[in-house]
Amino acid sequence: MTDIFRKHTPRFAHRALVDSGSRPFYRALSDRGGEALIDGRRVIMAASNDYLGLSTDQRVIAAATTALKRFGSSCSGSPSVNGTLLLHQELERRLAAFLGREAVVVTTTGFQANLAIAALLGMNDAVFTDMSNHASLVDGVRLGFAVHHKYRHSDMAHLESRLSRADPALGKLILTDGMFSVEGDLCRLPEIVALARRHGARVAVDGAHDIGLLGTKGRGVGEYFGLDDGADLITGTFSKCFGSVGGLLAGPQDVIDYLRYNARSVLFSASMPAPAVAAALAALDIVESEPERRDRVFDLTERLHTGLRAQGYRTGSSMTPVIPVHIGDEELGMRVWQGLFDAGVFTNVMTAPVVPRGRALIRVMVQATHTEAHVDAVLDAFASVGRRLGLIPPTAPGDFPPVVLARRKPTPSGS
Ligand SMILES: Cc1ncc(COP(=O)(O)O)c(C=O)c1O
Question: Which domain of life is it from (predicted)?
Fold first, then answer.
């Protein structure tokens, strides 16, 4: 007989992790910002998606505190019944104007915003997804009924062949992350939009990481590519650039109205608590009024990314504050993580199944609230750990590929 609870067979990475005594996951932090306190030790926080540093901004905290006192700690109900406050409607209106879309519906998490897409995926539809899409998009597709076609990461020829072979009678949706959360690269939006138009498909982009960060006004990957109207539907989260928690879907009024009444992750979950809504609204003010925060995070990213390449690390095709440092072997990845932690730098180690087996990487992330001294300390830690473990040469190689970043204006090549 099979015991349904017997699911604990450790994956290799987890066994290695337990054996090595490393504890990269579920570590409790006692404060936040560019630094954190872990087990009484102060470390540099290089593992947070708080790119603009707004989760500890005093204006955001004050807005959340006021809302907490006025509206309480919970809405105690879903948006369709008792869970809609004027504050939610204000956030939806403000976001629709910010993103240049007819309407927005907010959800309790970004994950739920992506699950809501399932309501669009009926039996007479086909969905085309990038193989590196976030788990929440993967699950949104699983909950729908559409025929599912996966294309290799950012491989436009593969996407085109998938589109060409699909039944022309089906409704079609291309679904992609805007900025990929592990590799820090961007979707090839101009080509995706061109293919969509040619094949009568709609485009949905998950802007979880790029809304607030990319483009002159912070509107995300569409603005960065000069294609503000490129995506027919945008999803997003407040847990990265907006110092809060919650999610959004933005698009045509009739589609958003349809989702309000048909998406189960919208309908059947208690709505965002007022302090989270107020925090997101205050963060939106800052995203709109302080573009220099985007410049700051890209300045620091340039310093860190260039420094890592100069030391001899391979950092993939990231154009953003998410920098993947490729290691390969999973056990080695754990040792690098531990070495960095011992040196006072908290990073993420990514192993299978998040990345393919044998392609472990350390993900380092930059925040506008970091200082140059933080970045230099991270570089020193990588240099000493990398030399000790034989990952990089003892002296810096003279030649290394230049770092190309998705700063406010796209490069002339559009990359
Ligand atoms: C690309 C992407 N989409 C969606 C989500 C889910 O967002 P949330 O944390 O608001 O549930 C995440 C969070 O990690 C993400 O990285």
Answer: Bacteria
Are 331 and 18 in contact, with CB atoms under 8 Å apart? no
Residue identifier of the C-alpha nearest atom 10 of ligand 1: 110
Asked whether the beta carbons of 190 and 230 are under 8 A apart, the reply is yes
CA of 65 to the centre of ligand 1 (A): 24
Residues in the chain: 415
Ligand 1 centroid distance, CA of 315 (Å): 22
Nearest to 233 by CA among 312, 279, 176: 176
Ligand 1 midpoint to CA 228 (Å): 22
Domains belonging to the chain, first-starting first, are 12-45+292-388 (3.90.1150.10), 58-289 (3.40.640.10)
The tokens of 133 are what? Answer: 């899409």
pLDDT in tens, 398-413: 899 999 999 976 544 4
**In angstroms, rounded to a whole number, what is the distance separating the alpha carbons of residues 298 and 174?**
29
Mutate which of 134, 235, 241, 271 to test ligand 1's pocket (most atoms within 8 Å of Cβ)? Answer: 134
Name the average pLDDT for the chain.
Answer: 94
CA dist., res. 371 & res. 296, Å (int): 10
Please, how many CA atoms are within 13 Å of residue 265, restricted to the half-sphere of its CB?
26
Q: Is 240 a catalytic residue?
A: yes
Confidence of residue 30 (pLDDT cuts 50, 70, 90): confident
* Element housing 195 (H / E): helix 189-199
Calculate the alpha carbon distances from 312 to 229, 242, 306, 309, 379 in Å.
40, 34, 10, 5, 12
From ligand 1's centre to the CA of 137, what distance in Å?
9
Residue to mutate (ligand 1; options 115, 131, 181; most atoms within 8 A of CB)? 181
d(CA 148, CA 79): 30
Nearest to 272 by CA among 57, 135, 118, 71: 71
Q: For residue range 308-367, list pLDDT tens digits in order.
A: 999 999 999 999 999 999 999 999 999 999 999 999 999 999 998 889 999 999 999 999
Residue 265 bears catalytic tag: no
Q: Which atom of ligand 1 is nearest to the CA of 239?
A: 10
- Give the pairing type, strands 345-346 and 41-45: parallel
Beta bridge partners of 364: 323
Mean pLDDT: which of 1-10, 26-35, 170-179 is highest? 170-179
